[in-house]
Queue: 2 jobs
Job 1
Amino acid sequence: NFMLTQPHSVSESPGKTVIIPCTGSGGSIASSYVQWYRQRPGSVPTTVIYEDQKRPSGVPDRFSGSIDSSSNSASLTISGLEPEDEADYYCQSYDNDNRGVFGGGTKLTVL
Amino acid sequence: QVQLVESGGGVVQPERSLRLSCAASGFTFNNHGMHWVRQAPGKGLEWVAVVWYDSRNTYYSDSVKGRFTISRDNSRNTVHLQMNSLRPEDTAVYYCARDHKGWPTYYFDNWGQGTLVTVHS
């Protein structure tokens, strides 16, 4: 089964850059697009990156996404960290059997 | 604007059934696939099921396959999740989510506020 694995937590200081990795297993991460969702406490998830690297309108260009086929991983990069970036971040895709797949989520702390 | 409003959640005993509904508005409903995604208390997101724009295809996670049924009524702009043989591990907030396209791309571009399902005796 295709799975996505994320670190449980990451932390960084305001103004710095953080990279959240999402490693695929049981299949190629490049086979289908990867999305990234942000979920603040008590709130509904919202999209920060879709189709590997696209940003929905309203998401600042401090957020970027990438895919690395050689390591079978996706990454979410957030530059110029702000306190309001503190949230849970989930990568997501789907498998060859048309089942959606989420990573376990990464809690970002902005120190 | 896009609105997705879930209903039907509540407290139910194990092995009983519950039917969730999601009322959609603000967009052309039959142009989009629709998903259910759940989140157990304090846990991560889990994809549950999808129905294509025309109901031609449905797919389920292994954890609910054979117990849950997703369906849609394009005349009423609603999507349903019939949940049978409920288990305590089905306890979660259930979100209705719109797919970006009709044949699902699994990009959930709009989400409802969720409805809580609690399964316990």
Job 2
Amino acid sequence: DTEVTQTPKHLVMGMTNKKSLKCEQHMGHRAMYWYKQKAKKPPELMFVYSYEKLSINESVPSRFSPECPNSSLLNLHLHALQPEDSALYLCASSPTSGAITDTQYFGPGTRLTVL
Amino acid sequence: GDSVTQMEGPVTLSEEAFLTINCTYTATGYPSLFWYVQYPGEGLQLLLKATKADDKGSNKGFEATYRKETTSFHLEKGSVQVSDSAVYFCASRRSGGSYIPTFGRGTSLIVHP
């Protein structure tokens, strides 16, 4: 099973709301990632968790707050977002974060609209 | 820094036509190379990969060969179908260090019946 699941599929929120995106994998992967993808663009890396510890933060604004409660779950907490944050948010996982042969598997994404 | 260059789309073909989407890379050392496909409204799916020179990745009729001498990883399919319409991303990932893939811009493929 090479499945990464994400919920919700769609999310509409106002600029004062607080919401969370959820990602789950049961492949035993120890690295998990959040990406942001705007229309007709490649994914942009936001955060990397390796063995449940945050290892990379690509200078993402603090209104995005990641959390990795355990090795299977990854959350992205959202607060006071701006309309320009509207995008497809993709979660991914890989066996580790360093082996050359590792492959990254993506979830279906959450389509976020900020009003 | 590392970079991946893909041909600009959209690529528009008739069903059963031959497909080539060009991809070249610049990287230190010998990166692993990947093709991902993104269908409308969905996430990225790994299509195929190659981890060393002269490796050929293949899946669902698609093929790509890792060419070190030309730093290329072109995607090919002998006979496309309407269901192949999607955006295709070429990506590289350098050996060692954290897994931070470098994506190309993506190439949109439109296949007409």
